[in-house]
Amino acid sequence: MISHPTLEVLPPPDDEDLFVCAWCVGPDEKHDAYTDRDMAEAHFGALAEDLRAAGVETSAEALMVVPFRVHWESHSRVWPKSLDWY
Prior knowledge:
- It is globular, with a radius of gyration of 15 Å.
- Helices cover 40% and strands 12% of the residues.
- By secondary structure, the chain is of the alpha+beta class.
- A hairpin with a 2-residue loop joins strand 1 and strand 2 (75-79).
- It has one domain (1-27, 35-86).
- A two-stranded antiparallel sheet has the order 1-2.
- The longest helix is centred in the middle third of the chain and has 18 residues, at 36-53.
- The model has no long low-confidence stretch (mean pLDDT 80).
């Protein structure tokens, strides 16, 4: 049996929370001739490939709009909609 800590209710995320989360879990910043769109499609495309290999049908486009939850220690924060990745 897996035990989970009691999750503390946190206030809604502010811009700094979203920036830090996007920096940690989102695509790398654009560089050279790559655009934000190129970076997002490569990042979420790789995630989609891993999920498809595990039997989950999805796409990079679908993953870009999924709400996400971040856990750290006993904290949990949910964003009800995804970020604008580009």
